Amino acid sequence: MSRTVITIPHAMSLQAAAHRMNEMGVSGAPVTDDQGCCVGVLSRTDLVRALDEGMPQPPASAYYSDWQVSPDDPESEVEQFMTPSVIAVSPSASLEEVAWTMCCARVHRVLVKGPDDKVLGVISSLDVLGAIVEQARTKNRLLREEVR
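Above: the chain's sequence. Below: its structure in token form.
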């Protein structure tokens, strides 16, 4: 689980959010409102969908040049493209529960929320895969020691 949670403000432009995600090396991040509460998730899938479906054209004043759009373009705020449903688990969730939740929701990450609904971390599909591999290695090591 990543305890350093990279968040994206709901009013940030899609371009700026994509830049932040790329810069931080994440494929998705919780979207927060003005009070810091999680209101959705923005993923690479959401970014691809926004590009495929065509983002609204910004006003002419938003252009710096023929190819560059202002990162503050209000027509492309993250809130318009994020997934509003938040898939979350409790800090005590087992590996199986996390994996099952991800499979059922067809997502690559789940948020870990505490009793106060605060986001404590993010568990990615790679985190789950790593934990499964670690469990298998531990089991194999114990079996080898048992044979000796």
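The helical segments are 14-24, 44-53, 95-105, 125-147.
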